[in-house]
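## retry 2 of 3
previous attempt timed out at serialization; input unchanged, resubmitting
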Amino acid sequence: QPQTFISETSFVKLVFHVDNFTDQTYFSFDSRAEQQFDVYLRYGQHPELYPNRRGQIAPGTYCERTFTDCRLQTCYVQSPAYPGIYPRHLHCTYKLNTRQPFIKLYIENEEFNIDGQRCENIMTCPMRPISSGAEHCPYDYIKIYDGKD
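## retry succeeded, writing output
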């Protein structure tokens, strides 16, 4: 099935690596530049009206973002390249804050693709035991902490 990659920057490098090259080895892809307002799943409606909805990127990082005033607007916390495939070997930190206490995190009508398993609904994902610590979960995971640090 086709995979989509949406760049976080204006540059993309594509590396094609094969172990055994034959006359049957090939690949093909399409590429196009789109405006933010054309990528609704990524930027929401009217991204020009909400420039910080996806958070502010931390200088010198690829995917660390800070979200402010999420109570006044909906914040879009997304993995890099969402809704397409996300790059490997990333460690992203997202910091959310509001002016008043209490942040409610909820997942609504979204998709999950953790560890290469795509799930249209969290209820239909294959069940896995809950683990703690990176040594028990060497693949993809999400951690949530409560507090400033």
